[in-house]
Amino acid sequence: DSHDAHGAPLGAEEGEATRKQLGWKYGEFEVPQQVYDTFRKHAAAGAAKQAEWNKTWAAYQEKEPELAAQFKRAVLDRQLPDGWADALPKLTPDDKGKATRLHSQDCINAIASTLPEFIGGSADLAPSNMTLMKCTGDFLKGSYSERNMRFGIREFGMGAVANAISLDKTGLIPYCATFTIFSDYMRGAIRIAALSQAGTIFVTTHDSIAVGEDGPTHQPIETLPSLRLIPDLTVMRPADGNETAGAYKYAVERSKLHSRPTFMAFSRQALPNLPNSSIENVQKGAYEVVECANPTLILIGTGSEVSICVDAAKELESTGAKVRVVSMPSCEVFRDQPATYKDALLPKDVPKMSVEAACTSGWGEFADAYVGIDVFGASAPGDTCMDKFGFNVPNVVSCASRCLAGERGVLSNGSQAKH
After folding, report:
1. Who's near 384: CB < 8 A, 6+ residues apart?
2. Which of 117, 155, 243, 356 is the catalytic position?
3. pTM reported for the whole predicted model
4. CA atoms within 13 A on the CB side of 298
5. Per residue in 216-258, pLDDT tens?
């Protein structure tokens, strides 16, 4: 009777004493015959049930050929229908910009109408996360054909349920949603999704200090950089409508075909649709938004900061700088690209500066200088927060000029807003 039993081997003597106390007369690794007999009986019963199911399945195929074909594809073969991604929205820079959480809503409803195996919901934040599927009702006792799940304010339980849906290997594609900051409450479930190879799609919104008046308790700072540290988890932070659609294409295929998790972070505030953004480019992890053949500087942005980089590049070019702007919706996806593509997009001999409304930690892998926020945010309107903490064109231009002049490391960390 000791705490040593928690983490140390019992030993042969204690093992023997335990078996004696339990009345177990068999030795180590000895399996009695009745165990084999019991399992064989279950095998026979299982074979009978399988035969009964095969008979039911054959009858169903005769009676409902269309639904049977759908069931075979979605559940038995666990494949996606040809052309399913054609339903995802495609936008141009002329289309009016909006929050990526609203683009996410468009994608969820496009997918819901195309994939009957798509199922999920929010931790009591559906009106804010924009995650309700309009083509179906609430999944409740007695209404199991519906697909909107009302999880309540229980993020960890929600993530665990979504993981279980995926790991049950029925072909269902589960998603669950909350604010980006509240992903901390389900961090264990997110990590287990990656460790256990669950195809959960974690949808989060309000992804930065642009949350606004809710203040530092609701403003993610270290959240996304820390999630990027989890092995086998892909983190997506789209910058506009096309990138959002591309993130969903990646996440759905990763869930259905590979049973792996994706974490997505969407903005509360409206963002413009960018030049060169596309569903296809998201599958590369990073790509040129503003093309430049022989750049003297490369700006790397994610999410809402990409459009700031685009505007900053215009000002820098007026001073004679040649600027390439790269959007990096996913570090993990970019990391998996061929070396030739990565080296061509981010040449080692060209200075690079990252701009992201999150901790600067981790950007040394891709950039030489960093604009970020290494302090807690503040309670103020979202655009005021972004401006005061340095996510504006003048500050990015100033930091870029310093980078061009040879400065490296953290050039802006948001501390100016605290003075």
Report:
1. 212
2. 155
3. 0.93
4. 26
5. 999 999 999 999 999 999 999 999 999 999 999 999 999 999 9
